[in-house]
């Protein structure tokens, strides 16, 4: 068979392209050397524990409708549960992880398919790491007196608290696993084979009954002041909380990383507190395909632009623009979650490490 020079050149070009593509895939699949070191061997913890912060006492005559428990008395509500791990030789900067809607601090602990979560990874990378359960969620107490007041006939049914739960079907599209349940987006990174483990993590959400700001916000302010130098890393529903916390006081807040916030502060509001902090607003993939998230991205972009024009140091990043593709709303649990974690840590090292303290 006779091969022309043009045919040979095309074939050689194809081989080169294939080789380059294979090398690129290998590079993407390979873990950074420092990650390999972080993942290997036992974790050395200098201190770990938990505590509560915030909250207030409430006296009520409707604490119980059971005969064996007194209906009248005083309880503490709206406090925030905090679990922490401090590695040996810890960095001076800590990270505080704030979960979103219908979830608890479990969001950050382990992925649905059993891989390492961001909490452990950040500790292995040397950061003191604090994981909260939002006020009135998980291990943080809720005021149930309004429910018992209605149950006992002391209050009208209209005074029942508003509580909701996100169904599997609605969470599927909210979390951008696909355009509709149970379809998936092409190339998405969430471990859908372990989907049932995510559904087990989800809990009822009391936030519509808690007012604005959510009680988590003043508790976060107290926590930041107590820690002295912490980056507030929030997600989804809680994405706005670090900004609301900074509006109370920026004391103790070294920076804000807001992951796919359900809301950003208004671009036309008082931006003064936000000009004092390095801010990252981070979105994953498929955002433009979501009627829920595309408008939020647009509003957050306007906020970031306004902060920059006011002299601040805010940045909005889409992971696909950084070469990281396929991330859902639950990027901390996606199959490439440690790629995202490393990207965030590089941002923190660059923007907070030099600017904090």
Automatic annotation (TrEMBL):
The keyword Chloroplast does not apply. InterPro entries: AB_hydrolase_fold, Carboxylesterase_BioH. It comes from the Bacteria. The keyword Signal applies. Residues 1-29 form the signal peptide. Keywords: Signal. PANTHER family: HYDROLASE ALPHA/BETA FOLD FAMILY, PEROXISOMAL MEMBRANE PROTEIN LPX1. This is Esterase.
